[in-house]
């Protein structure tokens, strides 16, 4: 092997990459890393949505109000609604918010919260011991990171108030009450995301890479609509096979699956259709510039990973990035499969995600069909 020829080949390769490919690499890398920085601006332990139910009967120097004030001044929790003793069915209303997914925890202060602390102090001075005051923390434990963060923040806020006001550190118990998602660990939380990502890549990439060969395969025997429909139906079959395989393997490893598995199966199969539809759309649009595929693929894959709910739940993504999140079918599939597998929801709780994926398929197929027909018309005119 001649070093001179190696050097010559190296120079030719670099010449072929400069400047267009180098610029494209720099731009793509800059966009993805910037997106990472923006997506993790809050992180999974900031602005966690909670409701507060404050039934404390103390109207002056209410310890519950002080604890809520400390929590509200921090960055961990975002108090959506505060219910007081005057609100009818306050606790039930807050629990409905929790069960519907509006909040991830409900912090409940009982009627005697402040008076129980005072009674504990008097008992301690007299050398006796009584049960400490308590507050109840109703939680959705299907997101272990968020539930642990909320519990830690409540503990911290209570201790701040007790230490600064009463010079005490022990007369309050925080009592977690898991509404759903009990026993969920990080492996369970990540499983729907890994399943969705696997199907997303295995169905998107083959379709998108077809643009390297000039776009979708054309056969004079079939119309554009027939070819596209056949490809989408093929992806459904592939998705069904992948979904069955993934669910069986998860079951073998004891992954948490408490909901209606027909919902999870449907979501994963529809994800395959939607991913293929997205790949078909992009391949059709870029068929005149096949090299653009190498730029488009990372611009689709990495934002989908960062903003699709794989690492961060959708609730932890900054609001201004949510429109980008919903450009990817992965977002709907992961959200729905987590609701089904971890929280036990059935069709009534996941129909929005199912419908969203169906609409996503229809939009991608419609646009791809339009471009295919337009390209076909141009070919006919040229002939």
What does the model show?
- The two termini are 49 Å apart.
- The protein has helices at residues 3-17, 20-39, 63-73, 90-99, 113-125, 144-166, 186-209, 224-252, 261-285, 293-307, 322-325, 329-341, 347-382, and strands at 48-54, 77-84, 105-109, 133-140, 172-180.
- The chain is elongated, with a radius of gyration of 27 Å.
- The longest helix is centred in the last third of the chain and has 36 residues, at 347-382.
- It is an alpha/beta fold and 383 residues long.
- α7 (186-209) packs antiparallel against α10.
- α6 (144-166) links the parallel β4 (133-140) and β5 (172-180).
- Strands 2-1-3-4-5 form a five-stranded mixed beta sheet, sandwiched between helices.
- It folds into three domains: 1-39; 48-180, 3-Layer(aba) Sandwich (abc type-2 transporter like fold); 185-382, no CATH class.
Give me some keywords for this one.
3 domains, alpha/beta, elongated, 13 helices, 383 residues, 5-stranded mixed β-sheet, abc type-2 transporter like fold
